[in-house]
Write a structure and sequence with these properties.
Elements lengths: L14 H33 L9 H42 L11 H4 L10 H12 L18 H26 L4 H52 L18 H10 L2
């Protein structure tokens, strides 16, 4: 394994952000599961009536309140996860440069703007995460470009597809509830899509956790391998300068001051 370039960026562990993401993702999975269960209860209610007008006002208000609460909770969680995930991914992308990896197709800035540019954000984040996954592989330490031949876990693609599916279904459900009539058939279709939203959102959260934990473990293991190899190389380097040793300053006494004074021409 080649020695690591001393001018590379420092490796910084992202354990805290990863743990925060884990908590947010688990909460999201739970809230999404509750949303799916609520939509199923709505479908059961609608299947037993001929017109939505048959539902009393109190039941309508209670169902609307629960649904809006779950919706707002999911939106808040989505925003929090988005900020934390972009921060985490950008740091992980810097870390793979700290490993000495080179020849990336996408620079580190794409870990941020890839999520913000319309159309491009349908595929660029997946590409960036795939590169980070491969470059974090602890088996790719022999050369700076060994990571190129590393495989990408199927969890990465599954996470991205379920995330896109959940967002698309969320928009479709909102459009149906906003522009369709208040008939039982329209509401039944919207609630059915709502069930799919909850399922895909919960699945995406679980898969995102697997992707994050996989990259975290790989980066920590790869950094441990690189650090151990460098420590061994430094120990066997005959020209290595030990900067930890500092000579003690000479003691200043009356005699040393007199000698210095008399020795001065």
């Amino acid at each position: 394994m080649e020695r690591r370039d001393r001018f590379l960026p420092p490796y910084i562990a992202t354990r805290f952000t990863a743990r925060l993401l884990t908590i947010l993702l688990l909460i999201t999975a739970a809230v999404s599961g509750l949303s799916a269960g609520f939509e199923i209860s709505q479908i059961h209610l609608l299947s037993g009536i001929d017109s939505y007008a048959e539902v009393n006002e109190e039941t309508r208000w209670a169902h609307t309140f629960i649904r809006n609460t779950l919706l707002v909770s999911r939106l808040v969680l989505y925003g929090s996860i988005g900020i934390a995930f972009i921060t985490w991914l950008h740091r992980c992308r810097i870390n793979v440069r700290a490993f000495g990896c080179r020849r990336f197709r996408y620079s580190r800035i794409w870990a941020i703007i890839g999520f913000l540019i319309p159309i491009v954000n349908f595929f660029r984040p997946y590409q960036v995460v795939s590169e980070v996954w491969r470059a974090s592989d602890p088996r790719s330490v022999e050369t700076p470009v060994a990571w190129v031949n590393m495989p990408v876990s199927g969890f990465v693609l599954a996470w991205w597809l379920t995330l896109l599916a959940s967002l698309f279904l969320e928009i479709l459900e909102a459009a149906l509830l906003t522009h369709s009539g208040a008939t039982v058939d329209d509401l039944f279709a919207a609630r059915s899509i709502g069930v799919l939203v909850g399922i895909t959102s919960a699945s995406s959260a679980i898969l995102a956790y697997l992707v994050i934990s996989g990259i975290e473990e790989s980066q920590e293991e790869k950094w441990a391998i690189i650090s151990h190899a460098e420590a061994e190389a430094d120990a066997t380097d005959p020209f290595r300068i030990d900067h930890s040793f500092e000579p003690e300053p000479p003691a200043i006494t009356a005699r040393s001051i007199w000698r210095a004074h008399t020795a001065d021409p």
